[in-house]
Amino acid sequence: MENEIFKALADPTRRAIFEKLAFGRMNASSLREGMDISQPAMSQHLSVLCQAKLVRQERDGRYVNYEVDPDGLALIANWLAKYRAYWPARIDALKALLKDMDQ
Amino acid sequence: MENEIFKALADPTRRAIFEKLAFGRMNASSLREGMDISQPAMSQHLSVLCQAKLVRQERDGRYVNYEVDPDGLALIANWLAKYRAYWPARIDALKALLKDMDQ
DNA sequence: GAATCACATAAGCGCGTGCTTATGTGTTAT
DNA sequence: ATAACACATAAGCACGCGCTTATGTGATTC
Fold it and tell me: Is the CB of B38 under 7 A from strand C?
């Protein structure tokens, strides 16, 4: 389960899809717009995300709407919480880190 | 960078190594104990974790000590924060996470 | 300085992953 | 009913990943 989540997120295309869904529910066709990805590829990615409980689906006529599934996020949060002792003390450090990575 | 982190965590063996390191710094040989993994495999896994900034190393004589690198965890926390709107309302771990990130 | 130890790197291999094209399934429209 | 649409599944292929064995690189010990 935890394994499925991390494997699902290991693919950049899948993370991009997930990010798109963060703005709101969308059907598979809409998700494809501006992504340069074939229809089967999208379907397969969504299937992986669903199995990982990162995304859930709901039929709406001949469309299928997808949306972020909180369960998956909760699992990641729980995983992350195990290493809380190692988090940087202040958010400032985090911001600095992000700036470093932009370059 | 973000990609390297998630790819690194996609492997269960690497997550197990990371979890071991969460208990404290350790050298590569100690990490191997009870893990049924070859020496080169361990070295390669640690290399991947280091490149992802999840782990950092420090030479100590002919040993090399490894320890959790907060930078990687910060990146994950930051990624997770983007989807905060979807977190389930009542999970203690998440509350703790929120508190740390808000301050 | 030669042997040994701890670890890194090289090269090769089997297997999974993500893509493609082709086809199947379910829904809507005419 | 038939066509068109939205999506899923099948099959095949190129590539990457994680493993192995073999060898290289530093550091320590005698």
Answer: no
Which nucleotides of strand C are protein-proximal, with an atom < 7 A from a CB?
Answer: 5-11, 17-22, 26-28
Residues 6 or more apart in contact with residue A37 via CB below 8 angstroms: A13, A45
Q: Which amino acid, one-letter code, is at A15? A: R
d(CA B90, CA B70): 26
Residue of B nearest to A74 (CA): B87
d(CA B27, CA B58): 9
- Other beta carbons within 10 angstroms of residue B61's beta carbon come to 7
Starting from the edge strand earliest in sequence, which strands make up the sheet with A55-60, in order?
A26-27, A63-68, A55-60
pTM, 2 dp: 0.90
Question: Nearest nucleotide by C1' from B27 CA?
Answer: C6
CB–CB contact B6 A3 (8 Å): no
Q: Do A19 and B91 touch (CB under 8 A)?
A: no
B47-101: pLDDT as tens digits: 999 999 999 999 999 999 999 999 999 899 889 988 988 887 655 555 665 566 6
Given a contact cutoff of 8 angstroms between Cβ atoms, the answer to whether A22 and A31 are in contact is: no
